[in-house]
Specification:
370 residues; Putative rap; repeat; cytoplasm; mainly alpha; TPR_rpt
Length: 370
């Protein structure tokens, strides 16, 4: 049997990774299958095998993001098996291992550990020659800093990524996603109106490539933006349209949550309750602890007699680095609600909880050092 050089396999894995980054599921699946078959004919090269195993892990992350994962992979166990006992990553593989591990920890909500691995990857970023690959790293850094409400850091990295993606039209999906992050940062900077051009461009480009996931995500982001501007009817329209494109996707739990919240804000309590029920039913099929807590919050604040103790119990579930941005928003929402009902002493406590969350978020500044 004729052997295949590791260099040829390496080039195919590079091509496979390009399709993964562009979310080209069909092409990525075809290349993975082809490379799997050729590995048995490849000349012995442990680094090439490690590269393949790392890319398999990244491939599964893509499928999970696209809500296409046919099987649940224990990613933590897989990474441990790839790392192996006594194995040492060298060169570019050291970068990929730390980068992919950071992505995994981020997906698990462990932001501190994710930042630690991203920092290790950044130390090896000079080994990455391809500017699009560096943009991928900048995008992931911007993403985690956005979720940690480290807005200036997020904006710095996302603009680096966006500048690259805009001149590489084959990475249009990443450009669209980068505009989402830019938009979210503007909202966090209380400049939501500056988000709109980015989101409108994202929606336009999503329709141009007929990507239903990106169309739906563009509509969700537009809904969030108009909600922050207190233009609630426009926000409702965008969230309702998003349902058409996302249907059974996991993002439906966020859509139902926002539709319930906005209807309650508008005084449409019965409609709000209907969306809470839809969200809870969806969570029975797609469980998620974060959203379970968010729906408990809606039930407690809007459908029950005012009971601060219930809210205190719910807030405890957000008392960690992943939860502080949510705690800030929920505490503010609750404080305004209690103020409108003349419960001033309770509203003071709730404002204090908001300030507490803000302080914890600011402490996250020390997690990243240049």
């Amino acid at each position: 049997m004729e052997t295949i050089s590791a260099a040829v396999i390496g080039q195919k894995i590079n091509e496979w990774y390009r399709h993964i980054k562009k979310l080209n599921v069909t092409d990525a699946e075809m290349l993975r299958s082809e490379i799997r078959q050729e590995l048995d004919m490849m000349e012995e090269d442990e680094q090439a095998v490690l590269y393949f195993q790392l890319m398999e892990f990244r491939h599964e992350q893509m499928l999970e993001y696209m809500n296409l994962g046919a099987r649940k992979v224990n990613k933590a166990e897989y990474l441990r098996s790839v790392e192996g006992q006594g194995r040492k990553f060298t060169g570019i593989l050291e970068y990929y291992f730390n980068f992919f591990r950071g992505m995994f920890e981020f997906s698990q909500g462990d932001y501190i550990t994710a930042i630690t691995f991203y920092r290790q990857a950044e130390k090896r970023l000079d080994r990455v020659a391809d500017e699009v690959e560096r943009a991928e790293f900048y995008f992931k850094m911007a993403e985690i800093f956005y979720h940690m409400k480290q807005t200036q850091m997020s904006m710095y990295y996302i603009m680096l990524a966006l500048d690259t993606y805009k001149v590489h039209p084959t990475y249009l999906v990443r450009e669209i996603q980068s505009r989402f992050v830019v938009s979210g940062n503007y909202v966090d900077l209380n400049s939501a109106e500056k988000s709109l051009p980015h989101l409108e461009k994202a929606l336009e480009k999503s329709h141009a490539i007929k990507d239903e996931l990106m169309i739906g995500m563009s509509l969700i982001n537009l809904g969030n933006c108009y909600s922050s501007l207190e233009k609630y009817q426009i926000a409702l329209d965008y969230f309702e349209e998003a349902q058409i494109y996302l249907k059974s996707h996991v993002h439906m739990r966020a859509i139902f949550y926002q539709l319930a919240l906005i209807n309650f804000k508008m005084g449409n309590d019965e409609i709000g309750k209907e969306y809470i029920q839809k969200g809870i039913e969806f969570l029975e099929k797609e469980p998620d602890e974060l959203f379970e807590s968010l729906y408990k919050f809606l039930v407690s604040l809007y459908t029950k007699t005012l009971c601060l103790d219930d809210l205190k119990d719910i807030f405890k579930q957000f008392d960690d680095i992943r939860g502080y941005p949510y705690l800030e928003e929920l505490a503010l929402e609750s404080a305004e609600f209690y103020t409108e009902r003349g419960r001033m002493e309770d509203s003071v406590y709730l404002y204090q909880q908001m300030v507490y969350a803000q302080k914890q978020i600011r402490r996250g500044d020390c997690l990243y050092e240049h």
